[in-house]
Structure formats: C-alpha cells, structure tokens
C-alpha cells in the first residue's frame, strides 16, 4: 500500500478493532447519546439499524476516515460513469444503468447508447411478457402458455428465482415458473415433471452461452420438446434465449427474434435487472418489474447522493469490515423472517463471496486483510430450530443480519405476529443473553443448580436489522441494491476486483479433463495422481456393478 494516508487509516481501524472485540453493545447503546442517530437510518423505503455491533462511536469515525482515504466516493462515481471498474477484464459494471429511468443523471454518465439499449430490451421484454400473460402468445398447438421453465445457473438463476418467490403475491395466476440450474438429471426430471410441452415456455439464460450446466440442460430441454412433438419452427413458440452471446444462441437454434440480449458490462450476479429478469417480468408483469427497478434505482440514488456517514450501503460495508477485524474468523449470517425471501441467502452468497472472495489486490499483491467472510443462513423461524443454538452459546461469534418484513395483516392464528415477535426476540436474546445468576435462579427452582452454566447465554452478540414495512417490488429492489452496493464498497476498501470471478475457472477446466475418464472404455492415463486413479477405478467398478 503506497498511499500513506490510506495506510494510516487502515492502521487506525485495525488497532481499534483489535482492542474492541469485547466492547459491550448494551453499554454503548446506553452511553453513546448519538449512537442511534449515527447507526440507524432510512433509505429507499428500508430501515437499517446497525447500532447492535461491537463498534464504539470513535471507531466509526476511524472507519469513515478509511472510506474517505480509500476514495469510495470517486470509485462509486467511476462505476456510475461506466469506467472499467472490473479492471482485470477491462469492463464497466453498469447494473445501475439497467434501472435508471430515462432521462436521469444518476447513471447516464454511462452514455446515451447504454440508455437506449436498456430501454429497447425492456420494451422487448415487456411486449413479450404482455403477450404471454394475456394469452396472445400461443404455443405451437395454439394453447396459451401455463408454465415457464427457466434454465440458468449462478447469476443467471439466483436473482430471477429470488424475485419470483419474493414477489409471488404479484404473480400471474396462470403462469407457474420453475427453475432448472443443476446439471444433475434428477433436477431436470423434477423441473419438467407433469409439464405439458405444448403449454410450456423455456427460457435459456446464459450470459456467456458457454456454461456447461446450462448448455447440457438446454440440450435436454430441446430433446424433451422434440419428444413432445415440438421441433423445427414450432420450437420458436416455446424456447427463448437470454444472453450476451447472441451468435452462439442462434447457432444453438434459438430464433433471432426470440433472443433477449444484454451486454458484457452486466455482471452475472448483478444481472437480475437485465433481460435475465425475464421470468420475473413474466410472473409479476412489466409494471411491477419496473417498480422493482425503480426501488433499486432509489437505492442507487441514495448511494450516490448521501454523505458517507449517512449512506446505508457504505455503513453496512464498514460494519462488515469492522467485524472481519474485530471478530477474527467470524462469518455473516443472514436470516430473513419472511418465507418469500427464503432464497435471499443463496443470492447473497453468490453476490458477496463470488464478488469479494479474492486474495489479490489491484497491484497483484496479497491483500493484507481478510476479505469476504463466509455468508450463510436461512429463513426464520425455521433456523431458530437448527443453528441458532450455536449463535447463542457457541464459542464463535457470528453477526446476524435480520431481514424483517412487517406482516401484511393479522391472521386469525396470529402466525404473522409470532413470526415478527420471534425476529425481535432473537435479536434481544443475542444482545442481552442470560447471565449465570439468572440461569442459576431458574436452575435452582428446578432443583438442578448444576444446569446454570449450561443455561447461561453470553449475550453481547452483534446483529443488524433491515426492516421492510412490506415486501413490495420497490422495497425488494431496494433491498437487493443495498447489498450490491455494500459488496462493491467492500471491494473498493480491500482494493480487489469485485466484478471478476477467475477462481471458478480452474474447476471448470478440470471437469472437462475428468469427464472423458468416466468412460470405462478409456484407459486411465499413467500420469494421473494415484488417489484420483484409485477413485476413478472405484467409480467405474460401482457403475459396472449397477449394469
Ligand atoms: O461459474 C460462475 C459464473 O460465471 C457466474 O459468475 C455466473 O453467474 C454463472 O457462472 C453463469 O454464467 P452464464 O450466465 O454465462 O451461464
């Protein structure tokens, strides 16, 4: 790190983090009069509360100084302006342009061409979605479409599936969306089970059009349609493509008019807002899809306009950075208290870990700090009955993001209220814990004093809260954009490239080498590592046994 101001800022943050790991959250909540004002805020329809972290107020000042020294403002502005922020691939990362209304200053630094292309694709998607939704678009035998099978993986799957689930309340009653990502043939069987080819629309979504899983599944789908009597020209009524590699999609057999294009400046994990979001638009309709874009855009504006000290994605990133330093080895737990957001964790895993799971900075040297904590989690209250035990009493401390949606109405059985009460209660339990004395009294009453130590909970366990008054398209869009900008901010703080993913290449290459060796007629090469050779021999024998 050559910039002395930046080096000093890192040094300050790291020094404070080392000495603040045990900071008492409750004491800070009581003792810092401006804590709530500094660490909770409303942005783009979301309420964010970051007060419950082991982060003393003066350390927040040091983190903000680090953000300044790391030129977060300049880097953010460069991203919005279409600079090649994906520096290893020499590309912009212009997802903000996908949700910028025209004309708008916030992302039109990217240029008029980008805005025109974005608008054209949105129009193409809208026309198609309207036609499928109102039944004007018919299958080859004249029947309207009732089922959509979306084939894609990673960023070409997780965002669309999450959006369809999250906004299921807005779904078209006739259209049912299914998602096929895994190359496991059983996944394919499940995806098409009980479907009728003549009323099914398949979307093959792949930015590169080279991804093995999607390519094989697309071939299998083409065969499935052919077996159902739909082939040749008829296929154009049932198979559409979404890609940045239009030529390859045409070569595969997708009719040029049935291809929804996007550009390589849309990163896979940032692509829900592009044509990759087609199943979501089919499901919730163009107006709701545009409302989702508008919500994300509201967060884009907040991110680009709010000062660093009151900027929701920046604060979320700074708190995350702090936890990696103050709580070495900690992970990030995400618990949406909303069944509709059950796939949020999977989307966040790709977003944060594929973006920032890097160990080398812009200068090619090893990054001095731990990057990208492991992200995991699941929906509340389910996970209270699985891993929450470890969060309350385990030896590790893992900050939790509670994503809480205010239930829409009070149902007769009080289920919505129970969900909400549990979210709030778990936050309280993590914070307050249960002292040995308190646990001891309860144990005494039972006549089992020895249980006190087992019942005690240490408390002082950090958490964030993101509160949504309701889960509508706009708030959903804002929620995802909040985390996208958090992720980018962290990448800039670590000076890594959040928009490439070189680490996934090696495994793909090796799979290409290994797959032919599964063929029993093929001799195993002599240079194969002995353990791999033995494993392949064993697998071949297992297959031979099963005939
Ligand atoms: O393998 C990782 C990855 O490249 C992701 O970044 C991407 O979202 C996914 O594969 C799918 O890629 P594609 O859309 O090109 O099929």
Q: What features would you highlight for this structure?
A:
5-stranded parallel sheet, 547 residues, 22 helices, binds 6-O-phosphono-beta-D-fructofuranose, alpha/beta, 6-stranded mixed sheet
Verbal overview:
The protein is of the alpha/beta class and 547 residues long. The chain is 47% helix and 10% strand. It is globular, with a radius of gyration of 25 Å. The N and C termini lie far apart (60 Å). The relative contact order is 0.13. It binds 6-O-phosphono-beta-D-fructofuranose (F6P). 6-O-phosphono-beta-D-fructofuranose binds next to loops. 6-O-phosphono-beta-D-fructofuranose (F6P) binds next to loops.
Tertiary shape: globular
Listed once per kind, the bound small molecules are:
6-O-phosphono-beta-D-fructofuranose
**Annotation, overall tally of beta strands:** 11
> What is the terminal-to-terminal distance?
60 Å
Summarize it.
Helix 12 crosses helix 13. It is globular and about 75 Å long. Helices cover 47% and strands 10% of the residues.
């Amino acid at each position: 790190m050559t910039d002395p101001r930046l080096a000093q800022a890192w040094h300050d943050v790291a020094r404070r983090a080392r000495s603040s790991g045990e900071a008492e959250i409750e004491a800070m909540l009581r003792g810092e009069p401006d804590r709530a004002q500094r660490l909770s805020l409303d942005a783009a329809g979301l309420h964010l509360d970051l007060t419950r972290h082991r982060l003393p107020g003066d350390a927040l000042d040091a983190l903000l100084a680090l953000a300044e020294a790391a030129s977060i403002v300049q880097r953010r502005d460069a991203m919005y302006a279409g600079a090649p922020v994906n520096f290893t691939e020499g590309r912009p990362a212009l997802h903000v342009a996908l949700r910028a209304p025209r004309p708008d200053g916030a992302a039109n630094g990217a240029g008029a061409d980008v805005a025109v292309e974005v608008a054209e694709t949105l129009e193409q998607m809208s026309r198609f979605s309207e036609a499928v939704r109102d039944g004007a678009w018919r299958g080859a035998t004249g029947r309207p479409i009732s089922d959509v099978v979306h084939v894609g993986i990673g960023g070409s799957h997780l965002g669309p599936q999450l959006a369809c689930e999250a906004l299921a309340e807005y779904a078209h009653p006739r259209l049912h969306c299914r998602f096929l990502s895994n190359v496991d043939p059983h996944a394919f069987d499940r995806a098409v089970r009980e479907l009728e080819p003549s009323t099914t629309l398949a979307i093959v979504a792949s930015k590169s059009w080279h991804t093995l899983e999607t390519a094989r599944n697309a071939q299998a789908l083409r065969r499935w349609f052919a077996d159902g009597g739909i082939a040749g020209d008829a296929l154009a009524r049932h198979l559409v493509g979404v890609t940045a590699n239009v030529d390859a999609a045409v070569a595969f057999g997708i009719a040029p008019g049935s291809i929804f294009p996007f550009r390589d400046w849309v990163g896979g994990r940032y692509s829900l807002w592009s044509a990759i979001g087609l199943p979501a638009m089919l499901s919730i309709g163009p107006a709701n899809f545009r409302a989702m874009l508008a919500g994300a855009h509201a967060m884009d504006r907040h991110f680009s306009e709010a000062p660093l000290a009151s900027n929701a994605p920046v604060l979320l990133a700074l708190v995350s950075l702090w936890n990696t330093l103050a709580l070495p080895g900690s992970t990030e737990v995400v618990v949406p208290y909303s069944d509709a957001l059950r796939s949020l964790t999977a989307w966040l895993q790709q977003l944060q870990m594929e973006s920032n799971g890097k160990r080398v900075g812009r200068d090619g040297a090893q990054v001095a700090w731990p990057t990208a904590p492991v992200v995991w989690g699941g929906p509340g209250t389910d996970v209270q009955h699985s891993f929450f035990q470890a969060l309350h009493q385990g030896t590790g401390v893992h900050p939790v993001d509670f994503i809480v949606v205010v239930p829409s109405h009070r149902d007769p059985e009080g289920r919505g209220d129970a969900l909400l009460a549990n979210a709030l209660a778990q936050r309280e339990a993590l914070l307050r814990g249960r002292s040995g004395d308190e646990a001891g009294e309860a144990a005494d009453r039972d006549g089992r004093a020895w249980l006190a130590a087992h019942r005690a909970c240490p408390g002082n366990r950090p958490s964030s809260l993101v509160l949504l008054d309701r889960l509508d398209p706009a708030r959903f869009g804002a929620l995802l954009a909040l985390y996208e900008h958090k992720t980018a901010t962290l990448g800039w703080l670590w000076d890594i490239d959040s928009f490439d993913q070189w680490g996934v290449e090696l495994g793909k290459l090796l799979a290409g080498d290994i797959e032919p060796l599964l063929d029993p007629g093929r001799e195993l090469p002599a240079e194969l590592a002995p353990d791999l050779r033995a494993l392949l021999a064993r697998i071949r024998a297992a297959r031979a046994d099963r005939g």
